[in-house]
């Protein structure tokens, strides 16, 4: 029976300034999707509110928009997937072997406090499944608690978009909080690469996290390897 992956995407289309657009960083989805597809995994999309997942404009421009991004932008079926994402209440966590939180700055607003996503994540993890994220996707893990009341990330090694990367991207003054520091404040053992924007993946048991957009393929490969090994 094919393994099943649940991708989490944002519904948020802008920063606090409605003229400053954001959304899903598309390659963080497409790169992982193609890796999982190569392994024959079944894949679905969920978002906090369901329906449309807007796209981060910068992720659609050269040189960030590679062949996988262009394929999704021109493929009607892929576009339909991004228009019709499921709601958390539509999802049965028992049906999934792994959850993968994608990024883009929009997730900083709608991922951290979504009770439905937290329930799905907790259920998948406590049944022996894999919890994974890339870039800002780790904001979806900030406030997820386990059944014993402890934070999922407390005492766990992980990574995600680093504060120096926010500064270099020119949006440090626009984001609602410092995600790197927020993770440290929750007791996470945050790690980052020596250089910004290089691929970096941290694996701590069944928690797999990638630092930035360039880490999506490597993150997905680690998840796939764990699934094939029966993690």
From TrEMBL:
- Give the matching Pfam families: DJ-1_PfpI
Which sequence ranges form a coiled-coil region, renumbered to this chain? none
Instruction: Recite the UniProt keywords alphabetically.
Output: Lyase, Stress response
User: Which GO BP terms, alphabetically?
Assistant: methylglyoxal catabolic process to D-lactate via S-lactoyl-glutathione
Provide GO CC annotations from the record: cytoplasm
Q: Does the keyword Lyase apply?
A: yes
Q: What are the residue boundaries of the DJ-1/PfpI domain, all occurrences included? A: 27-224
- The domain of life for this entry's organism is Bacteria
The protein's matches in SUPFAM superfamilies, at most eight in alphabetical order, are given as: Class I glutamine amidotransferase-like (SSF52317)
Gene Ontology terms for molecular function = glyoxalase III activity
Q: Which family does it belong to?
A: Belongs to the peptidase C56 family. HSP31-like subfamily.
Name of this chain's protein: Dimethyl sulfoxide reductase
Q: Which organism is it from?
A: Dyella japonica A8
Lineage of origin: Bacteria, Pseudomonadati, Pseudomonadota, Gammaproteobacteria, Lysobacterales
